[in-house]
Amino acid sequence: MHIEKLEYLVEVAKTGSITQAAHNLNVTISALSQSITSLEKEWGVHILKRSRSGAIPTAEGKVIIKKAYELLDKYEELKEVAMGYSNTIKGQLRLATIPGPMFFLEKVVMDFKHQYPDVKLEIVEQGSQDIINDILNDKSDLGFIILFRDRLIEHTGLSFERLLKVKMVAATSMNSSLAFNKSITPEELRQQTVVLYNDDYVKWFMDDFQKKHGSVDVIYTTNNRELISRACIHYSAVTVGLNYSFMTEPLFGSTESVILDFDMPEPSPVYLGIIQRKDTHPHNISKHFLERLKHDISKIK
């Protein structure tokens, strides 16, 4: 029996579909179906009940699939031990991130690649929901997102590890009437021209803000940071974002900008963190990468 057959079986169990599992694993539907059929013949037991609506484990199949999960975890541990003896790390690491953490990742990625040249690194910048979907569908290994009280991900089969506590702040230029303030009240923000970065947490924050304090004059929302910077510098607009993003990737020079805390009760804690699938054993590459990332973030804390 080949280990790939167990991987195929586990993927079908995760997705509930032979078609989707074949797509995720980049194999043909026929090859995957025949692989599972050969397991059933070899073991003399029906593992999956197949229908037009999908494939679900039989009672016996549930027990077998649970053991297959455990065996694959042990197999990954075995590979890690072997790689440790050879003192080499090879493979692929797929990262998905919201825009802000790119500053953290840039140095970590370069240092990691220098230390482990045989690891292929892929980074994609996406919205949070796309990142969650890609992690669940095994298209990415690690995802960097913001977790807040309305985003519950544990029930989806993902684990979340906190990296950095963050908070929302406002930013504007030294040309603004707010330039010498240390904070901004909800009423003051409502009197400003506002431009926003197109981020799902910023959207959630502003929607929640407007429900509590009234409407805000948002001129536009964009992924173009230059447009936001120009609006602040030339038109004294105000933008809203997470504090670490303004520290790590300033919209304009430190002598041109001012960062304002919100003068209102602090909401529930918000964290930048890492998501992974709960049902897979984190491979050695991910572990080494996270160790280096946490070391760099600890300096910011």
Automatic annotation (TrEMBL):
Keyword Transcription assigned: yes
GO cellular component, one term: protein-DNA complex
Keywords from the UniProt entry: DNA-binding, Transcription, Transcription regulation
UniProt keyword Transcription regulation present: yes
Residue ranges occupied by any HTH lysR-type domain in the UniProt entry: 1-58
Top-level taxon in the UniProt lineage: Bacteria
One MF annotation (Gene Ontology) recorded for this entry: DNA binding
InterPro entries reported for this sequence: LysR_HTH_N, LysR_subst-bd, WH-like_DNA-bd_sf, WH_DNA-bd_sf
Similarity-based family: Belongs to the LysR transcriptional regulatory family.
Protein name (database record): LysR family transcriptional regulator
Species: Paenibacillus antarcticus
